[in-house]
Amino acid sequence: MIAAQLVPTPVGPLSLLSREGVLVAAGFTADPTEMFVRLTPALQSEGLEVVDDLGPAASATRAYLAGDLDALDEIPVSQPGSPTRKRLHQALREVKAGTTVSYAELAERAGLPRTAARAAGSACAQNLIAPFVPCHRVLPSGGGYGGYYYGVPVKEWLIAHESGQMMNAG
């Protein structure tokens, strides 16, 4: 069974989905089924149950929101993908809170050529476990915030939160 919990955040509810203590999806939505339908058919076949407390993942989220910016790093995650995508997701987890990288830099950190920036962008777009796999920390080299699956205002808030420049969600 996939267990889900909603955790309130300043930018809206964060749905956490976990299987046997490993986070398989997380996203800024009030409806956990929006994340559930993005899982593999094998995981979907296990069913979804909303619970009151997922334990460590929910505690880490609350700690992160309270200012412990490294709290999410300790939570185990698992998501599907090619070996290249898995390398990119692992490199994303190593980008420290309060810092950002470009797509080309992310590719380089994953041991791929800088020309793999497009693959890095795809890995971010397909990331199922935000903000635990922090694709919000990747910015276009040309400036601005670029896109974000949950909307640019959420990305802006996450970056501001991590840099100590709190701002109101809007």
Q: SSE layout and pairings?
A:
Elements: E1 2-7, E2 14-19, E3 22-27, H1 32-36, H2 41-44, E4 48-50, H3 56-65, H4 83-93, H5 103-109, H6 117-125, H7 152-163
Characterization of the model:
This protein is of the alpha+beta class and 170 residues long. Helix content is 34%, strand content 12%. α4 crosses α6 and α5 crosses α6. It starts with a strand and ends in a 7-residue tail after the last helix.
Note the run of SSEs as H and E: EEEHHEHHHHH
Number of helices: 7
Major beta sheet summary? 4 strands, mixed
Helicity level, as a percent range?
A: 25-40%
Name the strands of the widest sheet in spatial order: 3-2-1-4
Q: What is the end-to-end distance? A: 35 Å
How many strands appear in the DSSP assignment? 4
Considering the chains and any ligands shown, give keywords for the structure.
170 residues, Double Stranded RNA Binding Domain, Arc Repressor Mutant, subunit A, 4-stranded mixed β-sheet, 34% helix
Brief summary of the model shown:
By secondary structure, the protein is an alpha+beta fold. The chain has helices spanning 32-36, 41-44, 56-65, 83-93, 103-109, 117-125, 152-163, and strands spanning 2-7, 14-19, 22-27, 48-50.
